[in-house]
């Protein structure tokens, strides 16, 4: 049995189940079983999570123990629960071998693109990726300055596995300005944040190790974890239809998961989380940092979207690293979201000893980053404001357009209300996200359904919609979604290829 997910307390389970549906009819045990099943399908409860005892849940829900026992029996009969004497009951997906993720490092199906052919052509709108066009003027000006700087570097051998010193200093200064004192020897320049992620994963974990992830999370991190044969251990983040006060992160659940499942690394995106767009508040940051310290788990903090607050919005909580007293936290960042993905400049901030190990590891696959691009990045980072203002403004107007079009054309879809980042996380009125993705090419759209953002094929009732495209394309895209929404909704989740096939 897969034990990579924590046993959840009755209080957490009650919170995750949400309120009783209005007008629910039928026996209480059937309603309870259905609520638990729906919470798994929506990703609110992780597949393989351990359930509380019947007695504890009965007390938490003020139901009789017989009702809870009958609900567990029904779930067991339907294949949603595994019970072993002495080790309690664990959730699973029916039709899978002891849970969908008996060996998640091997599993591929649900997280793939469901065999949908990629649409192409000038009229296709790609809502599967979330990247802006470049701030052309700022990039062109920085490139001209970089070309002028280049001759001073041509006498050397051109290799800098740690990154150019000037760029490491510019990145370190940004942390220091943000209240996290940092020196250049704490920075390794990488070819983007994805490179930074895989280098850190390779250095801090080994095949078979567990890596705690948020569920939903950034799909390419999940793919990298599985490709490296590490085991993703999800902690659920409720969607916009299930909002909890204090935000979607539950610090008690994160602490329990760290304690009980002993992951080798925990990967979190506290700033405009991908895909929910949520921001972790300062109190939760402090609690998560404390829990990581207590369980001795290194935190890998992805700050790719940190700079993408909408203009005029309140300042973000302090960087996660400011809650780290002993340099045990690893942060990664990138210019891809704040400036342009085509730059391929990212970085890792960590203790100098770890930076040395990472630079050595880097040489196995990639000797060094390009000098000219790093020179360009120095100029952007030393004078970022105009370009950042442009990109933030583009995102804010994209968010307003997309939110307005959804409200008008698909009023039953419930979208998050981000204050930055590049996407809405949308709760659909039913579990048909994969069906929507399957139909999307027929109307010239490409979309990423909820299951793409988790390890086990759940989250069928969710969809990520980026707002990085120009406003007119976003409006057209919502019209196209509205044209296929009813057809997609008619399908039951069990008809959808990807899981429960
Ligand atoms: C959360 C997150 N991390 C990392 C990356 C990778 O970014 P880069 O282009 O810098 O490799 C992305 C790109 O979408 C992302 O959304």
TrEMBL record:
Mind telling me which residue stretches traverse the membrane in this protein?
none
Q: Which CDD domains match?
A: AAT_like, WHTH_GntR
State the InterPro entries in the record: Aminotransferase_I/II_large, HTH_trans_reg/aminotransferase, PyrdxlP-dep_Trfase, PyrdxlP-dep_Trfase_major, Tscrpt_reg_HTH_GntR, WH-like_DNA-bd_sf, WH_DNA-bd_sf
Q: Which UniProt keywords apply?
A: Aminotransferase, DNA-binding, Pyridoxal phosphate, Transcription, Transcription regulation, Transferase
- Give a Pfam family name: Aminotran_1_2
Q: One GO molecular-function annotation for this sequence?
A: DNA binding
Q: Where is the HTH gntR-type domain?
A: 26-94
Family (UniProt) = In the C-terminal section; belongs to the class-I pyridoxal-phosphate-dependent aminotransferase family.
Q: This chain belongs to which protein, by name? A: DNA-binding transcriptional regulator, MocR family, contains an aminotransferase domain
Q: Which organism is it from?
A: Nakamurella panacisegetis
């Amino acid at each position: 049995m897969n034990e990579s997910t924590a046993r959840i307390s009755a209080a957490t389970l009650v919170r995750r189940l949400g309120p009783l549906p209005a007008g629910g009819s039928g026996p209480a045990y059937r309603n309870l079983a259905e609520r638990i099943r729906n919470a798994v399908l929506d990703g609110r409860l992780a597949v393989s999570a351990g359930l509380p005892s019947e007695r504890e849940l009965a007390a938490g829900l003020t139901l009789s123990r017989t009702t809870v026992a009958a609900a567990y029996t029904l779930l067991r009969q339907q294949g949603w629960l595994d019970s072993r004497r002495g080790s309690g009951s664990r959730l699973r997906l029916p039709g899978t071998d002891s849970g969908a993720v008996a060996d998640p490092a091997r599993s591929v199906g649900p997280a793939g693109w469901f065999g949908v052919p990629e649409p192409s052509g000038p009229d296709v709108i790609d809502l599967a990726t979330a990247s802006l066009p470049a701030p052309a003027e700022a990039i062109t000006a920085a490139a001209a300055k970089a070309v002028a700087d280049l001759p001073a570097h041509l006498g050397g051998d051109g290799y800098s596995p740690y990154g150019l010193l000037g760029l490491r200093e510019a990145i370190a200064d940004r942390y220091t300005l943000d209240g996290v004192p940092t020196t250049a020897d704490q920075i390794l320049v990488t070819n983007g944040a994805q490179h930074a992620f895989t280098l850190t994963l390779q250095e801090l974990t080994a095949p078979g190790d567990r890596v705690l992830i948020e569920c939903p999370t950034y799909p390419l991190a999940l793919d990298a974890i599985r490709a490296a044969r590490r085991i993703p251990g999800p902690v659920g983040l409720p969607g916009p239809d299930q909002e909890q006060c204090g935000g979607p992160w539950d610090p008690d659940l994160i602490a329990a998961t760290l304690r009980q499942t002993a992951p080798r690394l925990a990967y979190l995106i506290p700033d405009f989380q991908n895909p929910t767009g949520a921001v972790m508040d300062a109190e939760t940051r402090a609690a998560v940092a404390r829990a990581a310290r207590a369980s001795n788990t290194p935190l890998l903090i992805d700050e790719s979207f940190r700079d993408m607050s909408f203009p005029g919005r309140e300042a973000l909580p302090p960087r996660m690293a400011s809650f780290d007293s002993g340099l045990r936290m690893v942060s990664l960042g990138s210019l891809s979201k704040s400036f342009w993905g085509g730059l391929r400049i990212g970085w890792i901030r960590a203790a100098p000893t770890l930076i040395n190990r990472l630079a050595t590891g880097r040489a196995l696959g990639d000797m060094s980053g390009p000098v000219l691009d790093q020179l360009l990045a120095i100029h952007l980072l030393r004078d970022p404001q105009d370009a950042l203002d442009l990109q933030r403004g583009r995102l804010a107007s994209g968010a307003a357009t997309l939110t307005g079009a959804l409200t008008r054309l698909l009023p039953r879809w419930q979208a998050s209300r981000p204050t930055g980042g590049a996407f809405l996380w949308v709760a659909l009125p039913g579990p048909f996200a994969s069906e929507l993705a399957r139909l999307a090419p027929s109307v010239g759209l490409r979309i990423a359904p909820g299951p793409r953002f988790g390890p086990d094929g759940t989250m069928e009732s969710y969809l990520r919609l980026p707002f990085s495209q120009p406003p007119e394309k976003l409006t057209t895209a919502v019209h196209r979604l509205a044209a296929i929404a009813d057809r997609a909704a008619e399908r039951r989740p069990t008809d959808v290829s990807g899981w429960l096939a």
